[in-house]
Amino acid sequence: MLKKLSLFGILAASMLLFSACGDSDNTPENVAKAFLEKIANADFSGAKEYATEASGSMLDMMEQASSFAPDETMKSTGNVEIIKTEKDGDVATVYYKTDDEEEKLKVVKEDGEWKVAFSKSEMMENKMGDEADDMDMDMDMKDLGDSLDAALDDLGDEIEELKEDIEEGHDHDDHEGHDH
User: What is the rounded distance in angstroms from the CA atom of residue 105 to the CA atom of residue 117?
Assistant: First the structure.
């Protein structure tokens, strides 16, 4: 009986130890590093394992784009150095360095696991650096939308005026035809 209890204790302790080890692998730093290494090697389907579900479409686009580029242009050294991590609850920003460039990557908890939140806006923010912090992209897009709406309204007005001019021209031609 004592042997069975100690065997059960060892098994339970082992399970706890293994589950704790599994959790320690799922840190923002480890996930970011694995993700970046997959991207550096143009392994986009492998990178999906470390990315949020919403990031999948961006990775699909990258994979399609890579099919048009020679292999050597898509692959880099894959040398990733994690500099620091800032955590705020279920969101972390991992700062890293590749080929002498410092960048950052957003990592979030999804279904209890850390995953990279990788989107076009995240990429733009990383590429633009501190300038992106100063810009309000939503406002810029709204201004652009307003400008396009105004231009389309003006175009519509111009088209209406042209229609009227054409109709008046046809009416004028019709009246001239009757005079002859």
Answer: 8
Region for residue 75 given its phi and psi (left: phi exceeds 0; alpha: psi -120 to 50; beta: otherwise)? beta
User: What does the pLDDT look like over 22-71, one tens digit per residue?
Assistant: 456 899 999 999 999 998 888 999 999 999 988 888 888 888 887 777 65
Residues in the chain: 180
Within 10 A of 97 (CB to CB), how many other CB atoms are there? 13
- Digit-coded pLDDT (tens) for 61-86: 888 887 777 655 555 555 788 999 99
